[in-house]
Amino acid sequence: MSLIHTCELNGADPFDYLNQLQRHAEELKPTPSEWMPWNYRETLARTGALLDAA
Question: How many whole angstroms separate alpha carbon 1 and alpha carbon 28?
Answer without folding.
Answer: 21
